[in-house]
Each structure stands twice: as C-alpha cells, then as structure tokens.
C-alpha cells in the first residue's frame, strides 16, 4: 500500500471505531499519540488517552445513537 492508502486506513479506522456506531475505545490506545489533543466544539479540549476515552464515554451516554461515517 502507498503512504496515502496507509493514512486513509488509519483515518477510516478512527472514524469507524471511535466515532462509529459501535465504539471501540481500545483504538485510542492503538493508534493515537499518548499526548493527543482532541478538540470538539462546545467541549473543553481533552488531552491524553484516558481523557479522550472519558470524553467519548460521557458523549456516548448523552448520545447513545451516535454514528458518524465517511468516505475516502
């Protein structure tokens, strides 16, 4: 695969496993940098694996039917 295809696969996995219908929080540990900064409108920035996973856990509690998808 080309570098572009590799990058598309990582982004696709992030959207599918983090923002998709069936969340997989392990994806944060597997592909995100340890000091990743997540900025999402109307929320304070979140930094680091544990903080980002806590964000999504709370977000899913508020919006249990959340499902984003994308095309590459």
How do the helices and strands line up, and which of them pair or pack?
Elements: H1 3-17, H2 26-31, E1 37-38, E2 46-47, H3 49-62
Antiparallel strand pairs: 1-2
What's the total number of strands? 2
Which residues sit in consecutive blocks of at least 5 with pLDDT less than 50?
Answer: none
Indicate the proportion of strand residues: 5-15%
Give a short account of the largest sheet: 2 strands, antiparallel
User: In terms of quaternary structure, what is this?
Assistant: single chain
Average predicted confidence as pLDDT: 92
**Major β-sheet strand ordering:** 1-2
Shape: globular
H/E element sequence: HHEEH
State the share of residues found in helices, binned by percent: 40-55%
What does this structure look like?
The chain has three helices and two strands; from the N terminus they run ααββα. By secondary structure, it is mainly alpha-helical. The relative contact order is 0.18. The protein is globular and about 40 Å long. The chain has one domain.
């Amino acid at each position: 695969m080309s570098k572009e295809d590799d990058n598309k696969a990582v982004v696709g996995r992030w959207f599918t496993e983090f923002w998709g219908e069936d969340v997989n929080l392990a994806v944060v540990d597997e592909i995100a940098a340890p000091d990743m900064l997540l900025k999402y409108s109307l929320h304070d920035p979140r930094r680091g694996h544990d903080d980002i996973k806590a964000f999504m856990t709370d977000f899913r509690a508020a919006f249990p039917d959340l499902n984003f998808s994308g095309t590459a």
